[in-house]
Amino acid sequence: MARSLRSHGGQAVRFVCRNFGLSDMPRRGLTPQEAPSEVLLLDIEADLSIWEQGQEVWSEAMFPVAELAYHLALWLRSPAAGHEDFELDSMQAEEGLIRIVSVDGGWQVGSVFTPDFWTSPVAWDVLVAEIEQFDRSVREGVAAIGVDPAFIPEP
Q: 3-state SS of the chain?
């Protein structure tokens, strides 16, 4: 089932998560209930895609969506929120895999792997609402695979 970050106010950017799983957990010899939060952040994965105006514009299979939700929540809670750009500093992926930058006209989402691709700008309040929806979608997906999502801070 697709979990999407719905657009608000006519904006057409969404994040879609599909196929939540714990692919590395059995290899580690852990159950989700006994795994420390840093392992859950790395091991809870889903296929992540960014859609704009009804078209998929970026995707990554087996993306650490719990880790992304965790870092986005910390960014929104920080004094830098709304003033400084976001760059996912992942424990397992290249820095900049997901970037959110301020530009004239709003905020854009992109990736270091596709340097020429950026979504259309959205207003800060729209971006925050979309990140909050993404957070809810990740929490639902995490709960659906039997893991308590409490290790992800609230945005």
A: CCEECCCCCCCCEEEEEEEEECCCHHHHCCCCCCCCHHHHHHHCEEEEEEEECCEEEEEEEEECHHHHHHHHHHHHHCCCCCCCCEECCCCCCCCCCCEEEEECCEEEEEECCEEEEECCCECHHHHHHHHHHHHHHHHHHHHHCCCCHHHCCCC
What are 44's two structure tokens?
Answer: 């809870």
Distance from C-alpha of 155 to C-alpha of 147, rounded to nearest angstrom: 19
Nearest to 38 by CA among 76, 72, 64: 64
How do residues 41-57 score in pLDDT, each as one tens digit?
Answer: 989 999 999 888 788 88
Handedness of CA 20, 23, 26, 29 (dihedral sign): negative
Global pTM?
0.87
Kindly state the tokens that stand for 7.
């657009």
Whole-angstrom distance, CA of residue 52 vs CA of residue 32: 34
